[in-house]
Amino acid sequence: MQLINARLRQQKSLFTLDIVDGYFSAITEQTQQIVATENQIDAFGNLVSAPFIEPHIHLDAALTAGEPNWNHSGTLFEGIERWSERKPLLNESDIRQRVLKTVELLVSNGVQFIRTHADTSDNSLVGVRTLCALRDELADKIEIQVVGFPQDGLLSFPNGLALMQEAIEIGVDVIGGIPHFEYTRELGEASMKKVIELALKYNKLVDVHCDEIDDPNSRFLEVLACEALFNDLGSRVTASHTTAMGSYDNAYCSKLFRLLKNSNINFISCPTESIHLQGRFDSYPKRRGLTRVKELNEANINVCFGQDSIFDPWYSLGNGKLLRTLDFGLHICQMMGYADFSTALNLITDNSAKTLNIQDRYGVEVGKPASFILLDGEDDYSVIRKQGEVLLSVRLGEVILKRQPARVVTPNWIDYE
Ligand code: 17E
Ligand code: FE2
């Protein structure tokens, strides 16, 4: 396969990409535009990017909003309550249908890697079993990592720890936690130590829902980062949400950032979800309830964006489009400078790859698997500005998606001559 007239990120020229046996075999700069022959794909000057990554989504809960009850307050805590009413109704075919629909939606929007959370606060563990089974069944179509996520507390929910052990036996890839939701600070801290202990014992990655609350005293991130640092596990550990950081004072944050930098842990922010769920106990002024994405990024601490939810008890919108999440995120985090726009796709591509520990098989480079997307736009800036559609998705050299951009006929109002 040969793709011609393609633009690459941070480059001005046009390029030809050669793909042999599912790998990039050559990437060559063109001196001019080429007229396509029969077996070439013409990119028409559009942008080739490594595939989008959804690093944080709750597939077990996707498409359940309003079942049986809607979240009226819009808080995280009511979301957890509403979900606990839906959980007893879960069964394998219900989960399969919703997960497949959602994965299809993500794939149709350029996603080729997913990290999903599977709730372990459920004696049946049907969500964990079904998501692990689907991960294996879909392995030749999309790469999925499953996080064992103790929604109601690793140490506060009855048998929470035993259920996590069982989830590890079933085969989750990543250990999760929820320290801000444990009954006490002591339990929250102990849960962070337990998560790291399990990750070391079973050689797993870690992704904790950490400090997802507006409480400035929720400081479990420092415990997680310190445990990661002392056990030399940083690059394998992720702190998701960390919204309390938006409420920490600057003096504490200044001290905290030294640890975060030394620990080398990763961050995931879910901007649409957090702007919706957080700030709910404020009147005015009202907090934005996001972690310090701009400052983490400026400090060269790895941070990426995820959607978190698609039509579930926490968030009743969502459409699988990471470009939408990115657009919201850049606005909310005030990352609207020229330099921000020029590199913005990192937040839903390269940074996410680092978080998922998949860098060995990710990126548009000779020798890497030929997995990429073609975006309607010529660079990061224009793709974001026009919310450019995914025109093509190629996975391991196979075309898995083609999209014809819509043609709009407008009245002849303006004479461009
Ligand atoms: N569960 C949780 O604790 N936090 C979230 N943002 C979602 C589920 C979606
Ligand atoms: Fe989440």
Give an account of the 3D structure:
Strands 1, 2, 3, 4, 5, 14, 15 and 16 form an 8-stranded mixed β-sheet that branches. The protein is 33% helix and 20% strand. With 417 residues, the chain is α/β, with parallel strands linked by helices. The relative contact order is 0.15. Residues 58, 76, 151, 178, 209, 212, 273, 308-309, 314 line the site of 5-methylcytosine (17E).
Measure the end-to-end span: 40 Å
Tell me the number of helical segments per DSSP (H or I, 4 or more residues long).
13
Low-confidence stretches: none
- Bound ligands: 5-methylcytosine, fe (ii) ion
Radius of gyration: 22 Å
Defining key terms:
binds 5-methylcytosine; 417 residues; 2 domains; Urease, subunit C, domain 1; alpha/beta; eight-stranded mixed β-sheet; binds fe (ii) ion; TIM Barrel; 20% strand; single chain; 16 strands
Can you describe this structure in just a few lines?
The chain has 417 residues and is of the alpha/beta class.
List the helices and strands and how they pair.
Elements: E1 2-8, E2 15-20, E3 23-29, E4 40-42, E5 47-49, E6 52-57, H1 76-86, H2 92-107, E7 111-119, H3 126-137, E8 143-149, H4 160-170, E9 174-175, H5 185-202, E10 205-210, H6 220-230, E11 237-241, H7 250-263, E12 266-269, H8 271-277, H9 293-298, E13 303-305, H10 322-332, H11 338-343, H12 350-356, E14 372-375, H13 380-385, E15 390-395, E16 398-402
Parallel strand pairs: 1-4, 1-5, 6-7, 7-8, 8-9, 9-10, 10-11, 11-12, 12-13
Antiparallel strand pairs: 1-2, 2-3, 5-14, 14-15, 15-16
Helix pairs in contact: 2-3, 5-6, 6-7
The structure holds 5-methylcytosine and fe (ii) ion (FE2).
